[in-house]
What does this fold into?
Amino acid sequence: MKNLIKTTLLLSMFFGVNSLSAMDLSNADTANGAQVWADTCMRCHNLRPPEDLSKRAWEYSMNHMRIRAGLTGQETRDVLAFILESKTTNDAH
Ligand code: HEC
It folds into this structure.
């Protein structure tokens, strides 16, 4: 039983908790993010205003769109930082 709890904890540290925790945006370049956003995000659909999604949902969605748009990790963080910075509502997510 103890081992099971340990294993579950370890697994959730590597998979669950990590993928849910906030992306580190401390080195993000929002000017580049704005550029990448304008250049790539409307190739496939209209631009979604930052207000459309919660912060948590944007992070989730950017991981999704990163693959669709073929962005690098840095570009993904830049775009996410730009979007979150542009959000005027202060949701708790
Ligand atoms: C190669 C095409 C393509 C590019 C480029 C693209 N998207 Fe998308 N996007 C889609 C498709 C298709 C969907 C519909 C959901 C799905 O994937 O089934 C979608 C859905 C979304 C959604 C709705 C929520 C979600 O995750 O499904 C958001 C928000 C979004 N895109 C934002 C962006 C942003 C921001 C960018 C630029 C970084 C971007 N998209 C670039 C194809 C693209």
